[in-house]
Amino acid sequence: MAHEVKGVIATAKGSPVSIATVVVPDPGPGEALVAVQACGVCHTDLHYREGGIGSDFPYLLGHEAAGVVEAVGPDVTGVAPGDFVILNWRAVCGQCRSCLRGRPWYCFATHNATQKMTLADGTVLSPALGIGAFAEKTLVAAGQCTKVSAAIKPEVAGLLGCGVMAGLGAALNTAGVTRGDSVAVIGCGGVGDAAVLGASLAGARTIIAVDVDDRKLEWARQFGATHTVNSSNSDPVEQIKALTEGNGTDVVIDAVGRPETYQQAFAARDLAGTVVLVGVPTPEMRLELPLQEVFGRGGALKSSWYGDCLPSRDFPMLVDLHLQGRLPLEKFVSETIALDAVEEAFAKMHRGEVLRSVVVL
Ligand SMILES: NC(=O)c1ccc[n+]([C@@H]2O[C@H](COP(=O)([O-])OP(=O)(O)OC[C@H]3O[C@@H](n4cnc5c(N)ncnc54)[C@H](O)[C@@H]3O)[C@@H](O)[C@H]2O)c1
Ligand SMILES: [Zn+2]
Ligand SMILES: [Zn+2]
After folding, report:
1. Full-prediction pTM beyond 0.90?
2. How far is the CA of 142 from the centre of ligand 2 (A)?
């Protein structure tokens, strides 16, 4: 039996999102039907509606979610009805080239999720990152459901499904920040602040938060930033160097994803340091770097997809740290909103008023 639920749809490039009736079928083999309880508004949802990720409109937005499994397909054994789960966009398949080479955090099966949800007139919807969770129910691949302790609040848990995991993982997994390191984070939205928090958790000694908005810098301090730089009125490269005895930081994380922020990250990095790009660029962006310095400065220029996380390894561990009071995920939740307030949440994100607006269903 198909379910008719409300969902947030992006119908055309640049058009405001709207609420529509979404038809969600019952789970087939390998699938799970999830009653969504909370879903954060991530900048990537805005990228989708602006056509920055693809042109497979209409999109069913939302991908940073937690909820309860309502039904599973006949062959599903990993999760069961009643399980509290965080949805992930990396359902490790175990069979692709990356999985077989023992590097499951590069699994290619990410977007193989089901495309069976439709509008009432039968138009097939593209679920954002294979999830589509700005909806009362969604249909996902069962591997996209990671069971965690139900003691955590859904609006907090869901954040681990995307932005917060991406930021934490950029610092912990991709950069491998360790005790005593110096780290700079450019762009302190939800993703950047999670990178600040990750660096702090790993024991970094100096954590420099860079943003163009003083409000964001103040929040970054609450996540562990030891210094802040407003790059709208000063040169962040000079400032980062001034704070590190002229050296630059061991790690620079670009959580904006623009050519100019990447160039800043490249230049603000210590010799043989690491740049991690976690902000998502758009197709027309081009980068120019002095090749001689790419060689001469050594180190590593890396990108972080989803914080190089393994949901089954990382989500339950991070939920436990939160429940023990060691990972203040609740500080990312600026407001909880209803499904029909997503467009307004995009505007608030654009104006820099929120870290995360979270839809609660
Ligand atoms: N790699 C991944 O797996 C992954 C996962 C989730 C999100 N993302 C991406 O990460 C990026 C950040 O997402 P978010 O949800 O934190 O967005 P956000 O809008 O909440 O935060 C962006 C921050 O960057 C700041 N900023 C903008 N331009 C700047 C500049 N030139 N210099 C310094 N700061 C600047 C803004 O003031 C804001 O605080 C987005 O591109 C998003 O798509 C990547
Ligand atoms: Zn795989
Ligand atoms: Zn996201």
Report:
1. yes
2. 14
